[in-house]
Write a structure and sequence with these properties.
There is one protein chain. It is built from five helices and five strands; from the N terminus they run E-E-H-E-E-E-H-H-H-H. By secondary structure, it is of the alpha+beta class. Helix 2 (85-92) packs across helix 5. It is globular. The relative contact order is 0.17. The structure holds FE2/S2 (inorganic) cluster (2 copies). One FE2/S2 (inorganic) cluster (FES) binds at residues 96-102, 133-135, 137.
Length: 152
């Protein structure tokens, strides 16, 4: 075990863990931030998507030892009151069905719009390609991203 200082949602946390422990385990088991979901565990479904320095990454395959002093943001830290433009658009378009994939979807969409505030359909498809929704909410996701883009 080793001691790591990681900054999550603006707060510095000390965690005692094996260096190869995936960030997802640290978030859910050590920090009790259960908004980030476990799906496949092999970087294929996007359920575990969080931001590192604003970029969407898969927390299930990211060892805690490589995070260093980079800022981690989870769905709990995306906005103070759930009022990020992407979250508001998700409500407006009633996007979630079962909801399981949606934290990851929102984190990918928020990262996309922070880097490309007016994406084309093809750019949205490319950015969201790694986020799987077994309920098939893709059309509503696409509409919500376009609505959020108008507010960014
Ligand atoms: S749980 Fe990480 S990508 Fe599926
Ligand atoms: S809303 Fe059910 S998996 Fe996406």
């Amino acid at each position: 075990m080793a001691l790591f200082n990681i900054k999550v949602n603006g707060t510095l946390h000390k965690v005692d863990a094996e260096p190869d422990t995936p960030l997802l385990w640290i978030l859910r088991d050590n920090l009790d931030l259960t908004g980030t979901k476990f799906g496949c565990g092999v970087a294929q479904c996007g359920a575990c998507t969080v931001h590192i320095e604003g970029n969407a990454v898969r927390a299930c395959t990211l060892p805690v030892s490589i995070i260093g002093d980079k800022e981690v943001t989870t769905i709990e830290g995306l906005s103070k009151n759930g009022d990020h433009p992407v979250q508001k658009a998700w409500i407006e378009h009633d996007v979630p069905q079962c909801g399981y994939c949606q934290a990851g979807q929102i984190m990918s969409a928020a990262s996309l719009l922070s880097q490309n505030p007016d994406p084309t359909d093809a750019e949205i498809r490319r950015a969201m390609n790694g986020n799987i929704c077994r309920c098939g909410t893709y059309i509503r996701i696409n509409r919500a991203i376009k609505t959020a883009a108008k507010e960014m």
